[in-house]
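User: Here's a protein and a ligand (iron/sulfur cluster). What would the complex look like?
Assistant: Let me lay out the input and then the predicted complex.
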Amino acid sequence: MTRHITVKPITRLEGHGVIDIILNDAGNVDHAYFQVPELRGFEKFAQGRPAEDMPQITSRICGVCPMAHHIAATKTLDSLYRVDPPSAAKKIRELVYNTFVFEDHTLHFYFLGGPDFLVGPVAPKSDRNILGVLGKFGLEIGKKVIGMRKEMRDLISLMAGKVIHPVFGLPGGISKPMRPEDQARFAAAADRGIEFALMTLDVFRKVVLGNPEYVDLITSDAYTHKTHYMGLVDGNNKVNFYDGKLRVVAPDGKEKVKFPIAEYLQHIGEHVEPWSYIKFCFLKDVGWKGFTEGPDSGVFSVAPLARLNASDGMATPKAQEARDEFYKTLGGKPVHHTLANHWARLIEMLYAAERMKELANDPEILSKEVRTIPRTTPQEGIGVVEAPRGTLIHHYQTDDRGVITHANLIVATQNNSARISMSVDKAAKKWITNGKVDDGLLNYVEMAFRAYDPCHGCGTHALPGQMSLKVRLYDAERNLIREIQQG
Amino acid sequence: MSEVSKSSSGNGFEPRIVGFFCNWCTYTAADLAGTSRLTYAPNVRVLRVMCSGRLDPQFILDAFRKGADGVLIGGCHPGDCHYQAGNHKALRRYTLLKRLLKTMGIEEERVRLEWISASEGDKVQRVINEMTEDIRRLGPLRLPPIPHAGRMPGEAVERVSSIGQETGL
Amino acid sequence: MSKPKIGFYWCASCGGCDEAVVDLAENILSVVEAVDIAVWPVAMDFKRSDVENMQDGEMVVTFINGAIRNTEDREIVEILREKSKYIVAFGSCAHLGGVPGMGNLYTRESILECSYSETPSVVNPEKVCPQGETTVPEGVLTLPVLEERVWTLDQTIEVDYYLPGCPPPVALIVDGVTAFLTNQLPPKGSVLGPKHSLCLDCPRKDTKPENMLIKEFKRPHETEIDLETCLLAQGLLCLGPATRSGCGAACINGNMPCTGCLGPTDSVRDYGAKALSGIASLFDAETEADIARIADRIVDPAGTFYRYSLPGSLFQGKVFQKEGARS
Ligand code: SF4
Ligand code: SF4
Ligand code: SF4
Ligand code: FES
């Protein structure tokens, strides 16, 4: 008898998410599928809209990382109009962007993915959330987390108008200069951010690295895939979220290719499966070879771990130190362990805060020159940022009036979707055997997925109550035969 | 031409046109056309407005919503508006609305603005006949119905809905 | 006495509305403590059967965000309607269709075609397209099917109240939730927000001329934007005059024009037509040619005036007569 387990809703991507686990007669996993059951069609209805509206329209793809779309779109407009924004504008954009990445990574670690480790993977579901974290570490840390997040979000609103769906990006610059009083607030927040990131790394060291069981889990085969990695790097091949070239490393860690974003079509393809609305990205020169790993598969990965693997280091001193420790502990570069994403994310959080500090204290940031008015006839633009969840690419073509005729959007989770599918399948096969399924085991499957932080956030674990998993077992005719109660 | 008569006789389609006529000019002209026995197509349901400048674009959309295949707006000639600039206002709205309607898939001929003074009964006749034929050629508009599970907030609903009753659409 | 049950649910949404609730929850834990959140897929376990097993009207209120785009959205909101005493359309997507509602300018087929065949990075020679049911070696996988078009919540189920905005401003959410908890509800069908337009609360209102006339509209990237003067007076297409207040003029404070996310005030049925009407009346021109020249500068009237409200408008979207024509 074939059984069918549906885990949903697991998370938010460009919509909702489902894990479908199909068991064979022996009660072992035949295959676990990761599905995205929704499409809203932004690429189509972008057609006909004025290009300058894209930063605000595309931010509605995701209310968790609206800033990533907003900035990617804004940079695409720079390219479309062939304008170079004044240096201050670029710095303010990058400052606000790093503020956002910091805030988002905080959310993920404390609210979403982190509790798996901080509280424990098999702890009762009702504890595996921010409240469980508070219970374990005390209210003091909890207040800090919430306060930090709020401070960063308020700062974003100050500069960008709104934190959910910002408005400040324009081709050639931003809509307003920075006020001295705001600059002071950014600088102070950056200092607190660095402290906070260091503290968080300490927590991670103590709770996760100090526990051999967790280290075994992280390095276990069930959570390991030897794939390619991609990420944005600066001129020195250091991680950069805002700008640079895309670098791809092979599973052995060696550089495979590095290219400016204008050439993305030569390197990145999207594969379609009939059972999901999400497309699966792959490296074009290798080709789509299915959901397989290794150098002969076009599957690659993005997001924190991938960014570290695809770069030669971090551009700020403390983050660089943390990075060295990371590779030393995990046996050198590249690291293929999916769960190491959590650690990599904290290193990036530290980098984001350090970068904020550099930018906020740069005197140029107070310059009133924040606009270069475009004078050219627009035609085609391509832009990229590293969203918290990985490389995000926008590509527009317009008519002479700057009205969109074609738009292509490759979102972070699409770049990761093939590897996520493989991770979910592998973890399911490892943990669900002989028909034994319970919520602890399913959480092990969900952890594979959650490590990528597939664009969900929303403080999943923020409130009291039962937790997020929907689990249903079906027989071959999809009759419901069992339901698993969570929490 | 043969195509026109074919389609008109073929499906028996009689265009339904809502006319929003200014009280001071076009409405009077339509009266005049009637009393002077100028025959024109019976396809227009006339609604009197005090000035073309009073016409809310919502009413035009709602006329379509309620089943109109075309909307004709009649106002005083430029310079003759009793409220000075009402007809200029109408022209500005009409111009922008036409652009919107184009994106919405509504053919150009379905909305028409004409300046018709009180004495131009013959112009009423000509415009209505032309427009009726234009729309006959285009065929019915057929807006898909709005599923109306809930209530639309606001008094405007009642006000706008009354257009349907007044015109018998 | 048990605490009142409330729910949150998302349809075709971006998650921003849920994020807004999280931002709020951090601020007003006391309100959250006063209720029992029975459904919130973003934050906790939600099984369809749990809800199906509830008694009709067991939940006091369910806040639903997102537009209705596929069959699953529709099925679940129908169940939630039965189980909830009140339904609140939360955010512009549920209220009026929202940004994804602009999908109604295109057919469902062209949307799928664009995403899975036309975009330049897709490699799909066999023209595979996501299907409602797919047979894989291990069994059958299902997906919800896209509806013909995007619907607002009140075109799908009966709605009692509306919380406007993209996402709704925190202050309005607090007031809205409080209204339920203290049982001080306005008449059914009300939009839970101020009754006046944004201009009245705008920090730049004193610089807005009494009788404004505009010779030329400018697009925001084409011009320096003064930080203090009314944006409309600067020739930028600010929709503040047509838009419900309640956001604290958020975009204006970002030095960008209002794009109308809170939707119309109470007396307006069709936001786009009304906003268009207001903007057109400002044209400083009398001749056809001059008027046309000004109008031509508004390059996308549909996307500009119906950015958040196309499915809820009188036309609901583009009219596809040829395809849709019957009898
Ligand atoms: S209303 Fe806005 S914030 Fe809310 S779901 Fe829709 S797009 Fe997102
Ligand atoms: S038009 Fe815009 S900028 Fe001017 S007062 Fe109104 S809301 Fe403020
Ligand atoms: S200014 Fe306008 S678009 Fe911006 S938040 Fe307020 S109502 Fe929405
Ligand atoms: S009075 Fe006739 S158009 Fe104004």
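Summary: The two ends of chain C are 59 Å apart (CA to CA).
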